[in-house]
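Most newcomers find our protein records easier to grasp once they have seen one. A learned vocabulary of local backbone shapes supplies the integers on the structure line. An example says more than a description, so a record of this kind follows:
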Amino acid sequence: MKKEIPIILVKLEKIFSPAFFDVMVHLAVHLPDEALLSGPVQYGWMYSIERRLYTLKRYVRNRSRPEGSIAEAYIADECLTFCSKYMDDVETRFNREPRNKGFSSEEAYGVDVFGHGVNFTSAPEYIYDENGIDQMVWFVLNNCAQVEDYVNLFREELETQWVPNIERMLRQGFQTWFRNHILKKYCTNPEEMDVDIFSLACGPDLRVRKYSSCIVNGVRFNTVNRDKNKKTQNSGVMSQATHNGQLIDFFGNIKEIIQLDYNLEERTYGESI
């Protein structure tokens, strides 16, 4: 690096204007020498010390007595920290709930998609999405572990019927087949049928709720439209999926946060997409 950096800077001078090469660009010449002298970065960086000095400088109230101001404020901070950790029944910054707290449901569900663990932090918008409801329902059914056996059963029936495009028929016809299959089992043995599976087979409400922000596992996510007027961007996501038989990481942005409601016997379930 010490030999190559000057050559790289000379090549860059052929492309960029002279105003581009300020002190910060020239600093790269000295970085290899600093790395050779200081060794590993944890023995040479000053970020932690500078951060602590910034906190101590904020303690100064009397500029003619900076040391006394820092000492007095430090003692007061130590006393408040001790009292905060001593009194458990008082809400302090040590025992308060985190700002991005994920949703945790104590009720156990028979279907894993109902316990999604998503905490919505924005106001909902109720809309009727008749065009995309079938694709949403297929997404929920295809990502439910309890429905995987029914998907394989429907696939075997399609293979015995010599259907040309099985994957397309799965997306289009599995929802209807799954509802009829569960209704037949429910009419035969209603006591043995799981309530959550039956609710999942009946389908969601056509009126869906859309959100612009949510918290998943302590991480806040926003839609692209919500991030337009913000300095921080929390709309990027990564999802793993198979493509041509290989597991690939797909990157994208959140455009909509949709919740489907599955209602049965005065119980409301939610599944987030």
User: Anything to note?
Assistant: Confidence is low (pLDDT under 50) at residues 266-270. The first strand starts at residue 118 and ends at 120. The radius of gyration is 29 Å. The chain has two domains: 4-86, 118-272.
